[in-house]
């Protein structure tokens, strides 16, 4: 009888330990009876962070452009992050969906909720949020050891970058997402966190939209010392050099037109620090081109 009672207590302890209660990036409470075993990711950055958190084997589906690491390319697709295939998601029978708060269609995510699928919203808006995402995904998937280790390495690397670049002379930066429409980021977008880390100042930080459309005239008035662009793939976009015609802009006059591949500067993943190292190097180049 005593043994049975002890076994019962152990079972209760196991159940209590297995239940997960987390707060996602929207402020909502997410409850799971046990760590997720079938996860569907609704954004490329979510997929990449899940793999970095040691949970890649738990991911059963994802969206287009989820191409890192290599194993992510072989996962079943459930549409694109802005055009989800709800039937494909349901067919995978997920016990957890991780959605992108500002990127996925709200109506589609609401429909998934109606189907009773637990949803965790991701919205990392700063560099520090990436480490938290690693830790949270590790808890959701039961891979805490790998996730916490990855978060620790990420934070240590971030500390080293801060120590190296804090106190550097400010550089006014225009970050160009695309040519037509001419678009950039405000201070709430994670790219601005990288600009600040490197001692840069986003010339459009104060705009209200997170990805505002701006005019050529507004860029000329802002007169950035450096213009940084990413484009759509690993090749430097031809339109970056269009700025050379505007010789009254300091960035153009000094040749401070820099390219960073989008995967390492526009995704909310640990590789963002690779992009940060490139950006910091570019801004150092811009400082070195100042008249003496």
CATH class of the largest domain: Alpha Beta
Oligomer: single chain
Range of helix content: 25-40%
Shape: elongated
As a percent range, the share of strand residues is: 5-15%
From N to C, what is the helix and strand string? HEEEHEEEHEHEHHEHEHEHEH
What is the strand tally?
Answer: 12
| Low-pLDDT segments, ≥5 res | 4-16
User: What's the architecture of the largest domain in CATH terms?
Assistant: 3-Layer(aba) Sandwich
Helix tally equals 10
Tally the structural domains. Answer: 2
Mean pLDDT: 93
CATH topology of the largest domain: Rossmann fold
Strand order of the largest sheet: 4-3-7-8
Report the sheet with the most strands, covering strand number, pairing sense and barrel closure. Answer: 4 strands, parallel
Task: Give the terminus-to-terminus CA distance.
Answer: 87 Å
- What is the fourth-level CATH superfamily of the largest domain? Nitrogenase molybdenum iron protein domain
Give an account of the 3D structure.
The protein has 292 residues and is α/β, with parallel strands linked by helices. It folds into two domains: 13-152, Rossmann fold (3-Layer(aba) Sandwich), CATH 3.40.50.1980; 168-288, Nitrogenase molybdenum iron protein domain (Rossmann fold), CATH 3.40.50.1980. The chain has helices at 2-18, 44-52, 86-91, 106-114, 127-141, 144-165, 190-197, 216-222, 250-253, 272-288, and strands at residues 20-23, 29-32, 39-41, 59-61, 79-80, 83-84, 96-100, 119-122, 171-176, 200-202, 226-229, 257-259. The strands form four sheets. Strands 4-3-7-8 form a four-stranded parallel β-sheet, with helices on both faces. It has a four-stranded parallel β-sheet with strand order 10-9-11-12. α6 (144-165) runs parallel beside α10 (272-288). The longest helix has 22 residues, at 144-165. The N and C termini lie far apart (87 Å). Mean pLDDT is 93; it is low at 4-16.
């Amino acid at each position: 009888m005593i043994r049975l009672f002890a076994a019962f207590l152990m079972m209760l302890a196991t159940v209590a330990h297995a239940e997960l209660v987390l707060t996602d990036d929207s402020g909502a409470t997410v409850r799971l009876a046990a760590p997720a075993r079938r996860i569907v990711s609704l954004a490329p950055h979510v997929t990449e962070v899940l793999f970095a958190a040691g949970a890649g084997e738990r991911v059963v589906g994802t969206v287009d452009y989820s191409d890192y690491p290599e194993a992510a390319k072989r996962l079943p697709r459930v549409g694109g992050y802005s055009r989800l295939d709800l039937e494909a998601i349901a067919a995978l029978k997920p016990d957890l969906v991780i959605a992108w708060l500002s990127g996925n269609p709200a109506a589609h995510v609401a429909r998934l909720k109606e189907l009773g699928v637990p949803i965790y919203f991701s919205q990392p808006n700063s560099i520090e949020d990436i480490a938290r995402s690693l830790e949270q995904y590790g808890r959701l998937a039961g891979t805490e050891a790998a996730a916490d280790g990855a978060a620790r390495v990420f934070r240590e690397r971030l500390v080293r970058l801060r120590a190296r670049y804090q106190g550097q002379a400010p550089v006014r930066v225009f970050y160009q997402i695309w040519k037509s429409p001419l678009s950039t980021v405000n201070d709430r977008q994670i790219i601005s966190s990288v600009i600040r880390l490197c001692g840069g100042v986003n010339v459009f930080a104060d705009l209200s939209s997170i990805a505002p459309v701006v005019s050529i005239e507004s860029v000329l008035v802002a007169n950035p010392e450096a213009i940084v662009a990413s484009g759509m793939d690993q090749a430097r976009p031809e339109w970056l050099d269009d700025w050379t015609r505007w010789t009254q802009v300091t960035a153009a006059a000094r040749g401070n037109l820099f390219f960073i591949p989008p995967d390492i500067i526009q995704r909310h993943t640990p590789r963002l620090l690779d992009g940060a190292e490139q950006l910091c190097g570019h801004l150092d180049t811009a400082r070195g081109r100042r008249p003496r």
